[in-house]
Structures are given as C-alpha cells and as structure tokens.
Specification:
Elements (H helix, E strand, L loop, with lengths): L11 H4 L22 H14 L3 H13 L7 H18 L4
Helix pairs in contact: 2-3
C-alpha cells in the first residue's frame, strides 16, 4: 500500500495538518464509525479496566503495532496520564 492509497480517505484539512476549526490538535485524530465484533470490543474494554487506558487508545495502539507504525512510548507521559485517569476514577467512586 503506498502513501497515496490513503489520500482518498483523508479530508483536505487533515492533509494540511490543521483541523477545520483552525486549532492545532496534539495528534490529529480523525473520528470514524467502525463496526467491530462484540468480543473484540469486550476484549479491549476488559483490558482497559486493568490498564487504566481507554479502550479506543488500546485499539489504536494495537493497530499501530500491527501496521508497524508504532512509535517509541513516552513512559513518563503515559504514566502521568494513567495516574490522572486513576485519580479521576477514584474521585467518582462513593466513599466507603
């Protein structure tokens, strides 16, 4: 698959690297609708509960690994984000 194979699925604003509202986003993600089997979603949601990473992030990570597009993980940033998510979850729980 060549780089040009992706041109037809990306909106023009993504090719330019600038979202439509003019703000630069951290990682230029695109919202899509995709139908996946329930067992696949269940797998990632269960893993999400154990790892404190959102299941969509886990799916994206798996696709990056499969396609060879993975990047070096930023361990400190990942750890800080994980702690923030765990703190947020703890604040939502009723006191014991």
């Amino acid at each position: 698959m060549s780089d040009n194979d992706h041109d037809d699925i990306r909106p023009a604003h993504v090719d330019q690297g600038v979202p439509r509202n003019g703000e630069i986003k951290k990682n230029n993600k695109i919202r899509i609708t995709i139908h996946l089997d329930w067992d696949v979603i269940s797998f990632f949601k269960n893993r999400s509960a154990r790892t404190a990473k959102r299941y969509q992030t886990l799916i994206n990570d798996a696709l990056r690994e499969y396609t060879g597009l993975e990047t070096q993980p930023n361990v400190i940033t990942d750890l800080v984000e994980r702690v923030k998510r765990l703190e947020k979850e703890l604040l939502r729980r009723p006191p014991a």
